[in-house]
Specification:
This protein has 431 residues and is an alpha+beta fold. It is built from 12 helices and 17 strands.
Length: 431
């Protein structure tokens, strides 16, 4: 799907239709989408909604488009062609404009001072976009963009808008947040998106298998992490989030990222990892016995977590919520907690039962609405008992289709017997 701009054009046109339906009083409005800036020490990743709607990976890009016609893509200008330094660069050209479904590609303004453009841009570097926005504002039309009043959402975009507002009087007054409409589009995954998610899942399952070939008492958590991320790179993927490799007491820390402790015989290790393939993410957790065999106590807790997951899996259908305190009888999170409460371990389940999954690991989605056809979610119960240095989490990825939750990661073993046999086989093959 990458660079198949017809797919992205279809999505963009759907967004236009949603905007036109919700804001019929603003037929002459302008859509304004802002891409991410580049970071010199981290591999660039385009802003998720910008990529979902455009397929454009050029850092610093800005797309403007009337509701009723194609628009303009603004790209940064550099002292010399960026293509000399980076691959896949976009330059103003009629051919590229036609491919990307815009009328024209223009430079944002004058040349940047280096080979990156930063949030603290100068007025000159954005000169052309600023003049364009001044004209739009003077017409007093709506500017539809991603600017939710929610902490942590679209932070880079809001920083850019605040910066632009310094040079464009009354810009802020014209902004209309369309993030709920974009979330509505992004939430329902099509088959092409499922294929990409499934590729990320397959890579993640391979990474689990790779880790098990070296898992043994005395190995450091960091070596498991290295094996996992080597597996990602071998399949042209990267980590969707910082890998969690948490053994012993660390297994009770929900988002443990240190990954620097020696694994001990008799302990469990929680491996919560996910690959990213062409922007789409996986998120799979398994809990393994370091020595290859579960103790009886570990089996007790592990089987309870697995029973919880299977129970919730059967309930994860349209009409149920992931988490809704107003409807606890149909809230998967509340039902999972009740299941574990009844077993005497509710207080040890300290996070939510799951989340939406897609371009972002914690993907956009309105938790106030029930599960719908096309959703991709995780189901990840866990029990964490600090006083016993005992933590267990099991997480799989599910596609809601035909009225049920289809497990996309079912090939990764999770029954105790299967895990022990799987570990023994992987060790044998690894040696």
């Amino acid at each position: 799907m990458k660079n198949n701009y017809s797919v992205f054009r279809d999505r963009f046109e759907k967004l236009k239709s949603l905007i036109a339906a919700k804001y019929p009083e603003s037929p002459n409005g302008i859509i304004l989408l802002l891409g991410n800036f580049e970071h010199e020490t981290i591999k660039f990743k385009q802003e998720s909604s910008f990529y979902y709607l455009t397929g454009i990976e050029e850092p610093g890009s800005v797309l403007t488009s009337p509701i009723s016609s194609d628009g303009i893509l603004f790209v940064p200008r550099y002292q010399e062609p960026r293509s000399k330094w980076m691959s896949g660069c976009i330059e103003p050209s009629d051919k590229q404009a036609q491919e990307i479904f815009v009328q024209n590609i223009e430079y944002l303004g004058d040349a940047c001072r280096g080979y990156n453009i930063y949030p603290n841009f100068s007025q000159n570097e954005y000169r052309n976009l600023i003049e364009f926005l001044k004209v739009v504002v003077s017409k007093k039309v709506a500017i539809f963009t991603l600017c939710p009043d929610k902490p942590g959402a679209y932070v880079n975009q809001r920083i850019q808008l605040e910066r632009l507002a310094r040079f464009v009087p009354e810009l802020t007054e014209r902004l209309v947040d369309i993030s709920p409409l974009v979330a509505q589009l992004r939430r329902k995954k099509d088959k092409q998106e499922i294929e990409l998610i499934y590729k990320a899942i397959n890579c993640t399952m391979d990474a689990h298998e790779t880790a098990l070939t070296i898992l043994a008492p005395g190995i450091n958590e960091s070596k498991l992490q290295a094996a996992i991320e080597y597996a990602y790179a071998s399949e042209s993927c990267r980590a969707a989030f910082p890998s969690i490799v948490a053994g012993g007491k660390n297994s009770t820390i929900l988002h443990y990222h240190d990954n620097n402790t020696e694994l001990k015989s008799g302990d469990l290790v929680v491996v919560d990892i996910g690959a990213e393939h062409d922007y789409y993410c996986a998120d799979l957790t398994r809990t393994y016995p370091v020595s290859g065999k579960f103790t009886e106590r570990q089996k007790e807790i592990y089987n309870l977590v697995l029973e919880t997951q299977l129970y919730i899996q059967d309930l994860a259908v349209p009409g149920y919520w992931l988490n809704n305190k107003d409807f606890p009888e149909k809230s998967l999170n509340h039902l999972a907690k009740k299941f574990l409460d009844d077993a005497g371990y509710g207080k040890y389940f300290t996070h939510s039962i799951g989340h939406f999954l897609g371009i972002d690991v914690h993907d956009v989605g309105d938790y106030s609405k029930p599960i719908e056809e096309g959703d991709v979610i995780t189901i990840e119960p866990g029990i964490y008992i600090p006083e016993e240095n005992l933590g267990v989490r099991i997480e799989d990825d599910y596609w809601i289709v035909d009225g049920e939750a289809i497990c996309l990661s079912e090939e990764l073993p999770k029954d105790i017997d299967d895990i022990e046999k799987f570990m023994a086989l992987e060790k044998e093959q690894g040696n």
